[in-house]
Amino acid sequence: MMNFTPERMSEYLTHKLGLAAPVTVADIARFGRGSSRETWFVRYHDPDRPSGVVTVVFRLDFPAGSTIPSPLEQEYFIYERLGRTDVPVARVLWWEEDPRWVAGGRPFYVREHVDGTWQVPHFHDPDPRYDELRIAISKEHLGKLARVHALDWQGLGFDTILPAPRSTAECAHLAIDTIMQRFESLRLEPVPIMLEAAEWLHERAPEAPRISLCKGTNGLGEEIFRGREIIAMSDWEEASIGDPACDIAFLQSFIPEIERDGRTVWGLGKALEFYRSVSGTNVTVENVRFYKILHGLKMGEYAHNAGVAVARSAEAQIRQIWTGTEVFFFGKHNLAAAMGLLEPLPQVLWAELNQSVEELRA
Predict the structure, then answer these.
(1) Each residue of 36-55: pLDDT tens digit?
(2) CB neighbour burial string for 135-159, b if at least 16 within 10 angstroms, e if fewer
(3) Which one, 115, 117, 169, 233, has the greatest CB density within 10 A?
(4) At what angle do helices 192-203 and 285-312 cross, to 10 degrees?
(5) Distances (CA, A) of 344 to 88, 199, 333
(6) What superfamily in CATH does domain 128-361 come from?
(7) Residue 133: partners with Cβ closer than 8 Å, 6 or more residues away
């Protein structure tokens, strides 16, 4: 694997950039957030740049493999193709699979670093003073998703690496089947609730308003902000082609419910109205609810993938152990509750869990 030491990184960058003099590495840091793959920030001196210092980002799988069962090269492909569009993403620089630098079978890719922050101060603050801010951030994200959903995914070749439905009626069915095919290829033990839920979801599958490229992973912490503007959309490892409702179903707090004096100031209904105004696509509450339930199936897929990593490798990360156990529990419980087999988990539990996650990420 790539050895993230100043000496080795200087050797690598000097070679890759074709420079005569050795590159001076200023700093190397591993990003503490994220549970799918490793992310490293490398700062090095470049006398040809106005600032004199360049930061690049390295992405590679964990030693035991990615938590998400999609190949790293797919993520690289998505970033490269999105770089040709008006969707804001970090520019990819190169893919690396030369055995000289990729010992241990972990190829990686390098992209530019975008200077910004994933945090938005006061976004979770319920004080009415921040209502306007919270709504503005929510609209900003919905607007950027509308750009993603409007892309010519066929012209950009996304259907060469992602399963694509043949019609709007097939979107939900394909999403279910894709998850279950991956799950069955990984499965180490019987998980009856996954099979029951897949059949139950097939029976209730809605038709999509259109077929779109969908980002997959959304929410505060997944995008890079500068002020109130998203300047780079990140975390594309769960991208798919299908119903745009699946993106809106998994916004992880980016549609805050705000009520003042008995009046709904902001929430899912108003967010869908805004999305419709900027996209021209009528995503319904019913479709969003369906994909919220479908997400429980997806949780089972990537949680079991993490569990496989733990079972097969002594190099598994502690976060993969957590994903393969606790996240798997939540996914299965959500599916059972949706089918009326169990009572839903208390909302206060989810609130406490989300708060704990945010505290750990900070």
Answers:
(1) 899 999 999 987 776 789 99
(2) bebbbbbbebbbbbbbbebeebebe
(3) 233
(4) 160
(5) 37, 20, 8
(6) Aminoglycoside phosphotransferase (APH), C-terminal lobe (3.90.1200.10)
(7) 120, 122, 123, 228
